[in-house]
Design a protein that fits this description.
- The protein is an alpha+beta fold.
- It has three domains: 41 residues, no CATH class; 143 residues, Regulatory protein AraC (Jelly Rolls), CATH 2.60.120; 105 residues, Arc Repressor Mutant, subunit A (Orthogonal Bundle).
- Helices cover 52% and strands 19% of the residues.
- The chain has 13 helices and nine strands.
- The strands form two sheets. Strands 1-8-3-6-9 form a five-stranded antiparallel beta sheet, covered by helices on one side. The chain has a four-stranded antiparallel beta sheet with strand order 2-7-4-5, with no helix packed on it.
- A hairpin with a 2-residue loop joins strand 4 and strand 5.
- Helix 7 crosses helix 8.
């Protein structure tokens, strides 16, 4: 089905509906076709995606311009005012927002500090009206989750990737980020999720960016602009762990990923993940996996 879709420039859903009609299926077959039609209305694949990041000096400006793409902006520090069709909209640090094609935009950035943000321009020739409607009804902006920040980091890393598949990977990430934006926004609208405390999100971002460094609780708390005891309380309330336990969990998780995905030595992986010795790294891996680092690697490679 997928091969036919590419060759005939039709969607898999369209071809499947044609098949169901030609096969004379009724009842359950018709229900399947109707369900696929609904999904097909919300499916999209970007024709082009590009990612970037910039830090504007205090008082920086950009524009005016005509927005030609669907754009995600991830705002890490500072704040900005976006004039959309001459109407001002404000966004602060640790937020993510979507901009829609066809609008005139002008940006002004914080007067008192630098403003750091990244973006994804997503060009889709025919945007689904259903998709646009779901995006338009969401709160604006949303709080920047650690997952969304990680996806943005991956997108930026692909800019200089030697992989022949980098353009496809970037498009895949763009699709994932749009659906995550919708999912997180709808959770917030439905009242089924409580936004993470900004201090927790800042601490998590700091930890992810400095895993290999000899971090302390005081350093993490300073980055989050709260006291160490308060940060511990926040982590326990929202993540059911402590900042230092979270740090070591992330180090072990990254180490296991490197064992599975690279040929780096155990000693080199230990250093890259912030462990003082390979023995300490090995002990942590065994606690998490019940296997030594070498056994983790062998198990992963044997399954390929």
């Amino acid at each position: 089905m997928l091969i036919l879709a590419y060759r005939h420039k039709s969607s898999p859903a369209t071809l499947l509906r044609s098949y169901l009609r030609s096969a004379g299926l009724k009842g359950e077959g018709r229900e399947i076709a109707e369900t696929i039609t609904m999904v097909d209305h919300e499916c999209f694949w970007p024709e082009e995606v590009n990612a970037g990041e910039v830090t504007y000096p205090p008082g920086g400006t950009f524009g005016p311009r005509l927005q030609r793409n669907l754009q995600l902006i991830m705002l890490y520090s500072g704040h900005m005012t976006i004039w959309i069709d001459d109407v001002p909209h404000m966004a602060s640090a640790d937020s993510v927002l979507v901009l829609f094609p066809g609008h005139k935009e002008r940006f002004t950035f914080a007067e008192e500090c630098e403003t750091w943000h990244s973006w994804l321009h997503i060009f889709i020739p025919q945007l689904s009206q259903t998709l646009l409607a779901r995006l338009a009804r969401l709160p604006w902006p949303l709080q920047l989750s650690s997952t969304m920040a990680d996806l943005a980091h991956e997108a930026l890393a692909l800019r200089n990737s030697p992989l022949s598949t980098a353009p496809i990977l970037l498009k895949t990430l763009a699709v994932q980020m749009i659906w995550r934006y919708i999912g997180e926004g709808e959770l917030q609208m439905n009242g089924t999720s409580t936004p993470a405390d900004p201090a927790v999100e800042t601490a998590r971002h700091f930890i992810h960016a400095h895993l290999r460094e000899p971090l302390t609780l005081d350093m993490i708390a300073m980055a989050a602009a709260v006291s160490p005891p308060h940060l511990i309380r926040l982590f326990r309330q929202q993540l059911n762990t402590t900042p230092m336990a979270y740090l070591w969990e992330r180090r072990v998780a990254q180490g296991i990923d490197l064992l599975r995905q690279t040929g780096l030595s155990v000693g080199e992986i230990a250093i890259r993940c912030g462990f003082q010795t390979s023995y300490h790294f090995s002990r942590r891996v065994r606690q998490a996996m019940g296997l030594s680092p070498i056994e983790v690697r062998q198990q992963s490679w044997e399954c390929r």
